[in-house]
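Q: What does the assembled structure look like for these inputs?
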Amino acid sequence: MSISLQTSFCRNFQLNKPIILAGMAGNINSAELVAAVCEAGGLGTIAAAYVTPEALRERIRKVRELTDRPFAVNLLLFDKPADGVISPECMNWINQVRERFGLPRWNGEWPVLEEEIEACFQVIIEEKPAVFSCAMGLPGSYGKRAKEAGMKVIGMATTLEEARLLVEEGVDAIVAQGGEAGGHRGTFAPGETGPGECIGTLPLVSLLCSSIQEVPIIAAGGIMNGQGIVAALALGADAVQVGTRFLGCAESTAHMAYKSRLYEAKETDTAITRSFSGRPARGIRNTFMEQFQESGLDVLPYPIQNEITKEIRQAAGKVNDSHFMSLWAGQGVALLKREESASDIIEQLMNEASQGMERLTGLCTVASRNTDQ
Ligand SMILES: Cc1cc2nc3c(=O)[nH]c(=O)nc-3n(C[C@H](O)[C@H](O)[C@H](O)COP(=O)(O)O)c2cc1C
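A:
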């Protein structure tokens, strides 16, 4: 049986398949990966976080050379934190790790954040992709401007309250991000400690689908195969957003040491940490995460912590040391075993979804026969 799974989300967003490639910041979603997902009938997403406006424009144009299908551009939202002071303990800890990689000592100055969000958003408005998506807050004026420019807007929620706020803002769809998801928690205001809101994908999607009628819900977190898609659609979702499954694929530009670690990861290997960026995010546990936790140091606000750990991660990448890189991944990572092409992944997801549907149909037949007897 081959199925098409045309949901109203597919019709509204002009897609053939209800599958979204998550925007994955950190130089993972190459133009080739985004275009391959679009060409296969899903919605590819360019990640605009941590890139310069020039690089973003180049990537958007490259995707346009490769496909004329609709695609999304995604931003991680944050309010610029006020300047603060970095404790001598934090400075010493960071410098010990820097020494390990032969990096010069850091003087402990509060990093200057280059204000790139507005400039990147300006590029998005000028280039006008079909969809603007965002996470870690309400789209606010960005959402308004994107809509005025004719784009559809997708927000991300980790609770019902966040979803309701997104509806009030007039978004066109909401990603329900469960606690299993890889990468940063989309929680609007995660506070200064704790993992952010971590409701599992199953209860969160169920709750949002039964409570929010205004816009389609997109399930995210732990969806690694077509059976997961069937489960999400059965809960009432209109589409799925998938990150981890695409991380290790051929078109993903994730570091090779990162990819290797993904293929051997167990289901118990991930944890939520603030040690790399200052905001809670799920990744494969490694030495950096463990040593930071043992240090008992407070994390600095996002994205200041991200800035002060950036050079360490880059230096670790140069020597293939995955113990000091951020290895974002969801709880489904143990299902990732080898490199595949993005189009093969989509084909497999759809075949597995067919099998999942067949299994359910078979169960219905057996049940009705049993009732007949
Ligand atoms: C490596 C990585 C980077 C991510 N970066 C972003 C991002 O830049 N913007 C965003 O909205 N979500 C980001 N996410 C989260 C995804 O949107 C999504 O919630 C998650 O991948 C779904 O769970 P899964 O990884 O189990 O498929 C990232 C996820 C991963 C794994």
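The CA atoms of residues 194 and 280 lie 8 Å apart.
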